[in-house]
Structures are given as structure tokens and as C-alpha cells.
Design brief:
4-stranded antiparallel beta sheet; Immunoglobulin-like
Length: about 140
């Protein structure tokens, strides 16, 4: 009986570990010709409160002031479907090494994620075209 109990505990721990690994999904961001060197990845996961966690990392992203037309910030957006308005989930700061990151959560479970160059980090709707993008659906 002890062997069975230990075996069951080992199986339960293995299942929990596998579930933890399966709950994080990494996607590469698709770029545009206007920023050919830019690349990024985003990790999507399930937060404790059933929200979707977002961990975005970019590199080789030009200073937004050097774009044509110049911008002040990169803004990260999520959009649940094409007919719904995009939601600003944060400004992406680019450091001197041309890298940036953003960590946040959303109650949405399926959405498009994209980055635009904007005049301010607090804009309520995207004016710029998507520069890096991906979609998420668990």
C-alpha cells in the first residue's frame, strides 16, 4: 500500500509540473519592413486569478524619435477581435541598447497583440501602423 501511495504522489507531482510547463506559451512577434532589425518574443501564461499574463521582450527596436514620422513612445495594444477597439496595455520603453520589455496581465484569453509608434504612451487608440504583432488563443 505504501508503494502505491508513493507512486500516486509521484504521478501527481509529475502532472502538476507538466501542467505548469504547459501553461506558458512563447510566440515570436512578426515584424514589418519599416523596422527590419526589430524582433521580439512574448510569453503568455495563466495567472492565479485566471487572467492571461503577458511577458513581452523586444530587441533591436529603433529609438522612436528616429522613425519617419518621429514618435515619442512605442505602445503595446491588445484587440480581442477585428471589430472591437484595441486597448492600450502599456508604453514600451526602449533603452540605450535598443531593448525593451513589458509585463502585465489581461482578463482576455484570445486576442491580437501589436506594437505601434505613438506620440504619447497614454493614447487611447492606435494612430500608428502595427510594427510587431502576434495573436494568442490558448
Amino acid at each position: 500500500m505504501r508503494v502505491t501511495t508513493r507512486w500516486a504522489a509521484l504521478l501527481a507531482l509529475t502532472a502538476l509540473a507538466a501542467a505548469g510547463c504547459a501553461s506558458t506559451e512563447e510566440r515570436h512577434l512578426n515584424g514589418t519592413p519599416s523596422l527590419p532589425a526589430a524582433e521580439g518574443t512574448v510569453r503568455f501564461g495563466k495567472a492565479k486569478n485566471d487572467n492571461t499574463s503577458i511577458n513581452l521582450m523586444v530587441k533591436h527596436l529603433a529609438n522612436p524619435e528616429k522613425l519617419t514620422p518621429p514618435a515619442a513612445n512605442y505602445v503595446v495594444w491588445i484587440q480581442p477581435n477585428k471589430s472591437a477597439p484595441a486597448q492600450n496595455i502599456g508604453a514600451l520603453k526602449v533603452d540605450k541598447d535598443l531593448t525593451g520589455s513589458l509585463e502585465t496581465e489581461t482578463p482576455m484569453h484570445s486576442f491580437d497583440l501589436f506594437i505601434t509608434a505613438e506620440g504619447a504612451g497614454t493614447v487611447q487608440s492606435p494612430a500608428g501602423k502595427p510594427l510587431l504583432s502576434t495573436s494568442y488563443s490558448p
